[in-house]
Amino acid sequence: MMKKIEAIIRPERVHAVTKALEENGFIGLTLTEVKGRGRQKGIILQWRAGEYRVDILPKVKVEVVVEASKTDEVIDTIVDAAATGKVGDGMIFVCPVEEIVRVRTKERGKVGL
User: What is the distance between the terminal CA atoms of the chain, rounded to a whole angstrom?
Assistant: First the structure.
């Protein structure tokens, strides 16, 4: 059984997260620039004319597929590297992966995991 771990993190924490994952042996990943909001409902910024709210913030989605037995290790690695202790640090979602197919060779299964 394999799991897909999707972490939504602050853009400024991407380097720390990818470095930590690599150091722990998790090389394969996908990064996507995304925008969204959570409980913080955006941030309030100051401008010459006063305050204004930015309610959709830039984030990065980090996706990693691993053996189910490695799920907690990946989650702990991401949390340790991504956390700032402030609202907006992100979320992690874990989903089952039914199958992997390598496009080039049509190989099925673990495909290099």
Answer: 12
Q: Starting at the edge strand that comes first in sequence, how are the strands of the sheet with 2-9 ordered?
A: 30-36, 57-67, 2-9, 90-97
CA distance readout (Å), 9 to 27, 48, 67, 68, 101: 18, 30, 22, 22, 27
Q: Write the CA distances from 66 to 29, 36, 100, integer angstroms.
A: 10, 26, 11
Residues in the chain: 113
> Token pair 């907006």 is at which residue?
88
Three-state SS for the chain is: CEEEEEEEECHHHHHHHHHHHHHCCCCCCEEEEEEECCCCCCEEEEECCEEEEECCEEEEEEEEEEEHHHHHHHHHHHHHHHCCCCCCCEEEEEEEECCCECCCCCCECCCCC
pLDDT, tens digit, for every residue of 10-57?
A: 999 999 999 999 999 999 999 999 998 776 666 666 667 766 666 788
Q: pTM score, two decimals?
A: 0.85
